[in-house]
Amino acid sequence: MKLPLPLRGQLSRPYGYLFIDVEPLAEFLKDKEFVTVGDVVTETAFRLGLRPQMALIDGRTKRVIAKEVKGVEGYEVVTLRNEPGLIRVSAVEKMRELIASGKKYLVVVEGEEDLLVIPLVLHLKEGTYVVYGQPNAGVVALEVNEFSRLRVKNLLESFQPEVC
């Protein structure tokens, strides 16, 4: 499924709690279940001693190759493919399988992980947070709930089918 150009602007706004500093973020997340999406957010979480259920990275930050994430002992490393600007059905299916297993995973995305926030919101249990970077603003913690699911379902209806 391909992201239509008019939606790019909508997705550049934070949805959820925006944290400008990492200390309040760490305090907020310490007793919560959460998933990280993005190299910097994931690296920051591990550096702060936080342990996400799942961490998605693509090895790039603002499309520049990022350094390796450290501190992921105890996480199974899984690779999946998801091209920039798309949400691959195979990526969604794989993430659903990983979520159902209950294990901790570091998911290395060949392509781009940003849009995978959308299927995570659909498939994680209510009350889980999806934590992702908001370029030039901070970090967003989006709670999975009825409202966030409705929001991403509405977004997905605007996506266009694409053969990969």
Describe this structure as you would to a colleague:
With 164 residues, the chain is of the alpha/beta class. It has one domain. It has helices at residues 5-11, 22-29, 39-47, 89-101, 117-123, 146-158, and strands at residues 17-19, 34-37, 54-57, 60-61, 64-65, 76-82, 105-111, 129-134, 138-143. The strands form two sheets. Strands 1-9-8-2-3-7-6 form a seven-stranded mixed β-sheet, sandwiched between helices. Strands 4-5 form a two-stranded antiparallel sheet.
Describe this protein with a few key phrases.
164 residues, alpha/beta, 7-stranded mixed β-sheet, 25% strand
Strand content: 25-35%
Q: Could you say how many structural domains there are in total? A: 1
Low-confidence stretches: 62-66
Q: How much is the average pLDDT?
A: 87
End-to-end gap: 9 Å
Total strands:
9
- Describe the global form: globular
Helix content: 25-40%
- Counting helices, strands and paired strands, the structural category is alpha/beta
Count of helix runs: 6
Largest sheet, in brief, is:
7 strands, mixed
Determine Rg (CA atoms, Å): 15 Å
User: H/E order of the elements?
Assistant: HEHEHEEEEHEHEEH
Strand order of the largest sheet: 1-9-8-2-3-7-6
What does this entry show, briefly?
With about 160 residues, this protein is of the alpha/beta class.
